[in-house]
Amino acid sequence: MDTFEIKKSDEEWRKLLSPVQFNILREKGTEHPYTGEYDKFFEEGTYYCAACGTELFTSKTKFNSGCGWPAFYEPSINKNIVKKRDVSHGMMRIEVMCAKCGGHLGHVFEDGPEPTGLRYCINSGSLRFEAGKKK
Description:
Structural class: alpha+beta
Largest sheet: 6 strands, antiparallel
CATH class: Mainly Beta
Distance between the termini: 35 Å
Low-confidence stretches: none
Shape: globular
CATH topology: Metal Binding Protein, Guanine Nucleotide Exchange Factor, Chain A
CATH architecture: Beta Complex
Number of strands: 9
């Protein structure tokens, strides 16, 4: 049972999200590496959940990991991210989800840069970017 604040049926989510966003955020899909719009994107601004608008990351913590997906070394607000053990596809990983709507964002790995040593490997399709400095 989920405890997310925003609860919608698949039909409701399909009306709000593109097919790619729905696959990633609601069906735990992923985009092909090096194809997401934010992979090699380094403008200054803030990244929000594409499903519900919750603030997730800022450009200050984004780095070029070379993994094929946007990478961040920490969330902008820790409580806006939920981590969950994921043993799908024969791997053991830590899934990253939006704490407000439960949308799948990607995974976090322990091979990132200092100061955290973490690499939040996030699907572009799960994000919405707003340019400019955080208010």
